[in-house]
Structure formats: structure tokens, C-alpha cells
Amino acid sequence: MSLTYAVIGTGALGGFYGARLQRAGCEVHFLLRSDYNQVCDRGLKVESPEGNFQLTTVHAYPQAQQMPPCDVVILALKTTQNQLLSDLLPPVLKADGVVLVLQNGLGVEPFVANLVGNDRVMGGLCFLCANKVGPGHIRHLDYGAITLGEFAADYQAQGLTERMHRIAADFRQAKIPITLSDDLLLARWRKLVWNIPFNGLSVVLNAQVDALIQHPSTRQLAQQLMQEVVQIAASQNRVIPDQFVQTMLVDTETMKPYRTSMKLDFDLKRPMELETMYDQPLQVAEKTGVAAPQITMLYQQLQFLESKHPSQNSD
Amino acid sequence: MSLTYAVIGTGALGGFYGARLQRAGCEVHFLLRSDYNQVCDRGLKVESPEGNFQLTTVHAYPQAQQMPPCDVVILALKTTQNQLLSDLLPPVLKADGVVLVLQNGLGVEPFVANLVGNDRVMGGLCFLCANKVGPGHIRHLDYGAITLGEFAADYQAQGLTERMHRIAADFRQAKIPITLSDDLLLARWRKLVWNIPFNGLSVVLNAQVDALIQHPSTRQLAQQLMQEVVQIAASQNRVIPDQFVQTMLVDTETMKPYRTSMKLDFDLKRPMELETMYDQPLQVAEKTGVAAPQITMLYQQLQFLESKHPSQNSD
User: Fold this and answer.
1) Nearest CA to A40 among A62, A18, A63?
2) Mean pLDDT across A111-140
3) Chain B contact set for A297 (CB, 8 A)
4) Closest to A22 measured CA to CA, from A40, A52, A44
5) H/E segment holding residue B190
6) According to DSSP H, which parts of chain A are helical?
């Protein structure tokens, strides 16, 4: 039996992965809000350097209650909308199904586990540059790999499970590079090493990533912020070697000019994902007694900017 | 014998204090650059809540070499122009005269002392809101007090001297509130307690002081930055009590909406006074082994913004 998929949040990320899975032959059900009518009429369109394609018919739904329960529920909403999940998740998740949390930051799996149970949650870290450029119209710019890991209470490392391998097989069929991690929390911290400096600084300094990495002051600041992330991770027994920070910095130098997801949210007057990307990591730092003065400062600056810049919550 | 004054840098600050001194009967000589012709023709005009006035004739000079040597040389250039001082100061300073450094930040008196000798330098901290609104036209908005102190090698506290009292008498005659300090370095650090957080944050967050003090995140951040300043000062044996920080914060709450001098420079595309306000204090921190991660971060952010925002050096 092949797996069935639900995509909760058909923006750039959910739309891209869902459309790729459907193109590869998977049964995929899409929850949409503002784009529902257009997608019913015209389907989904994906532009990509790896090949453009169009899905003329998709299973589209305006409400979770109308969707069939699925084996894998891909959670691709912004974390700023997670208050909706208690209504959205239960109807679409099979009894033996799993929610695959493709969200940024920290604390997202425990939140979902609280709604559906610890054994029905996995997490995925996406390295994807994609924008939604119109209703049902996604532009994939670069990258796309996912790192997948099982969740368990207190993020105990779980090793690789049968269902991870089944999901990974579907993703690979869909040409989505996938890596399996036996330690989801470590994978999350590793992603935060990049996300915490570059998302926040791109908003505060109104800059793209290439400008930040090219100027010696902000390159050094990014490195300092990365080292604070590494220290908080270490307080949760997640060891990130110093070489990883160096590699991140060097890799960032060769990225194309790129607006981070938080900068995109800010520019589009959407709320920023401050809670999961800054507040949750800083709460860990406080609990474990790690000093993180520069992440704290970045978070304070972002809170100020968010307040000056009222966002309109939408999808 | 009454003292004669030279004003080096007739912008808002130099123009305001110089005009007040002349109005009170002092002989004042003004060095001007871009406003020279207009000021020769029309004099200086000062608008102020404490009374508007106009000086129809002033001693105006386009070059320091044309000025008479004076008893007191008021140095009111931006510190970003201090490379000019080796040419500007010697011609206007009497052998037994003194340079009164009315500049922001740290390291300015040693720089001047290097040109004219340790015993011919005093420093003043100005608490003044004033803008130049046109050629030879100054708008005084609020405040105006000066704290005056003698300089000596290594900023050894000097006590109050005869010449301080004489200068203070002239300033009081000119309705400029003046306080005499027996420890110039302490006075400088106390001023930096306010300047370091609010100048930098107003630029980085594109905000006026009232917005920064009203938001709890930036109020707290300002307090943290102030505490770092206090710690660096302490490493130079300048003790600033915690109550001072609290008082600064409370006083700031009642200030009118106000653009800091650095924000004004940034908005007008003038170079920011980063070296004296951030680099010099951070050099002290490094030398004395004090951690100042948040001031460091603010400086790094400002350096980035300065580089994105090429300034046009002018007076």
C-alpha cells in the first residue's frame, strides 16, 4: 500500500513538496485558503531550474474537515499560525498516521505532539528557496533537500524507523533529496546555527544574505551568533563541532543573493516566526544557564521592529 | 582681561554656544566653511524656546590661518573631521590658551593633547538638542547644559582650576548652564551611558528615542547596553552607581520625541561618529578584559550600515 499525503498549508514550501510528490504518483490532498478557487480551476504550477511542471487537477480543500484522513500530514504552515492546529490536524490524520512537521525553529514538535501524541510526530528541516508568486503558482529558486527525524518525548534520539524509510522512498521518487537523522533535536539545532543569525540580521539591517556575509563586521557577528547557538545546543547535549560553523560561513559565501524567509515575511507584512526561532531557543538558554547576549539582543531588536510594523495575518 | 573665544566648526552646537557667548559680550571668532559667505552677509540667527536672537555682525573666517590666536578654542567639529585639527588648531590657540573639546565619545582629548600639549586641553560634555536649519541659522530645541573638566595625561582627575572658573563665568553670563567636574573621564563615561545605546539603536532600528524607551524590549536592551558601559568604566576605576542607569532610563521617558545626533548624521548621509563613540570604548574593554558583547554587536551593525550608506563628508 502506498502512503497518502495531506499538505496543511499550500504556500511555497507545502505546495512545492506536495506537487513534487503528486507528480511522482503519490496521492496528495491540499488544504488551501486564499488560493482555493484558483487551484480548483487551474491546479498548481511549479517553475523550477530542475524543470517546470503543472498539475492540472489536484485534490484541493478549503477546510480540513472535508479532507480524508491520510498516512502522512505535511505541516507546512508558518508557526505563527500554529494556534489553528488543534482544529486542523485531527481530521486529516489516520490513527496510525504521522504528522511531518516541516516548520522552522524549536518547540514545534512538542506542540504538535501535545495535540496528536508523541508517537505520531516526525520533523523535517527543509533547505529550500522557493516563493509563491501567484495563486497556486510556485517558483522554486534553489536547493530543496530535507533532513528527516523521528520525534519522541524530550527529543530522545530515536534511530531510523520503518516509516522514515517509507516516506524517504516517496520523497526520493519525487526527486527531493532526503537525509535521515537519528537525532531530530540535533538536526534542528544545526539548522538554527544558520537561521538565527541570518534571518534576524537580514530584517534588522534590511539586507540580503550576500551583503551580510561579504562585510567583515556582519560576517564576524554572524559567527559570534552561531557560536552562541552552538553553546545552547551543547547545554542540551547536542554537540556541533566548530568546523560546522566554519563550513556554514564558507557555504553562505557562495549562495546567490537571497532574502531569508523572515525578511520575506517582514517585507510582506506577515508576522515573523520570532517565537520558535528566537524565544524558544532563548528559553532553553535561560533554563540551562547559558549566556546568549547577542541572540537576546537580536530578538529584542526584532520584537521592536515587529511592533512598529503591524502584520496582517494571512496565508 | 576678558577671554577671547574661537569656534572651530560653526554647526548647530558651535554656532549656538558661540552666538550665546557673543550675545553676552564676549569676543568670539567663528571658523566657517559652507556657510561663510551667508554669515558674512547676514550674521547668525538663533531660534530658541529661551528667546530668539540675531547677531548681525560676527567675526567670520573661511580659514583658521586668518583667525587671531584666542584664549579658548571651542572645538565643535564632528570627530569624523579630526584629521583636520593638526592644521586648524595651532594658528588659533594662544600660547597660554586652552582647547575646549566639545565632542562626543572617548579618546578625543588625548588626540587633541597630542597636537597642543596635555596642559592646553579641557573637555566639555554638552547636553544640547539643536539643529542647523539653514546657513547661519540654528534652531535650539531643548537643553543646553555643559559639564566641564580639565584634561591631564591618562585622564588623571585634576580638580577645579582657575581657568575653569573663568570660562564657567563667561558661559553662565551667556545663560549656558555649566557644571564643573573634577574628573573629566568619569564625566565622559557618564555621558556614554546614554549615548552608546540610544545613538546606535536609533540608527539600526530607524527610530526616535521615545519609541525606543517606550517598547519594553528596547528599553531593556538599552539598560543592558548601559550596564556594559558601566562595567567598562569601572575597569578604568570610574564608578557609576546603578542608580545612575535607572535615573537615565526614567529621564529618557520624559524626553520629547528626538532624533539622536548619530541618527541625524546617518539620515543626512554624513559619516557617523563610530570611532569615538564605539571603537574607542570597545578598545578600552578589550584592553581591560571586560566583556561587552552587546556594544560589540551594535558597533558591528553600525559598521555594516555605514558601508551600505556612503556618506558625503561635509560640515
Assistant:
1) A62
2) 96
3) 221, 224, 293-294, 297-298
4) A44
5) helix B184-204
6) 12-23, 36-42, 85-92, 108-116, 162-173, 184-204, 209-214, 216-235, 242-253, 261-267, 274, 280-288, 293-307
Q: Round to whole Å and give the CA distance between A145 and A123.
A: 13
| CB count in 10 Å sphere of residue A113 | 18
Q: What is the pLDDT of residues B12-46, one digit of tens each?
A: 999 999 999 999 999 999 999 999 999 999 999 99
Name which of B191, B255, B194 is nearest B222 in CA terms: B194
Spatial CB neighbours of A41, under 8 Å, sequence gap ≥ 6: none
Rounded to whole angstroms, how far apart are CA atoms A292 and B211?
25
Q: What is the pLDDT of residue A311?
A: 63
Integer Cα distance of B158 and B153 in angstroms = 10
For B214, the grid coordinates are 517606550
Among A127, A173, A304, A14, smallest CA distance to B209 is for A304
- Sign of the dihedral through C-alpha B53, B59, B63, B64: negative
Q: Which residue of B has its CA nearest to A217?
A: B300
Q: How far is A111 from chain B (nearest CA, A)?
A: 26
Which amino acid would we find at residue A312?
Answer: Q
Rounded to 5 degrees, what are φ and ψ at A69?
A: -60, 135
Phi/psi-derived region of residue B162, left when phi > 0, alpha when psi is between -120 and 50, beta in every other case? alpha
Mean pLDDT, rounded, of chain A: 95
Residue A227 has pLDDT above 50, yes or no: yes
Task: For residue A123, give every residue at least 6 positions away whose Cβ sits within 8 Å of its Cβ, in sequence order, or none.
Answer: A100, A101, A102, A108, A109, A148, A149, A151, A184, A187, A188
**Chain A residues in contact with B298 (beta carbon < 8 A):** 297
Does the beta carbon of A205 lie under 8 angstroms from any beta carbon of chain B? yes
Which grid cell sits at B263?
541618527
Q: Is residue A81 helix, strand or coil? A: helix
Q: Grid coordinates standing for A50?
A: 530542475
Find, in chain A, the residue whose alpha carbon is nearest to that of B201: A301
Distance from CA of A224 to the nearest CA of B (A): 9
Residue A276, CB-side half-sphere exposure with 13 Å CA sphere: 26
The total of other beta-carbon atoms located within 10 Å of residue B117's CB is 11
What global pTM score does this model have?
Answer: 0.94
3 state DSSP class of B315: coil
B221 vs A215, A300, A305: nearest CB: A300
In this prediction, the answer to ipTM > 0.85 reads: yes
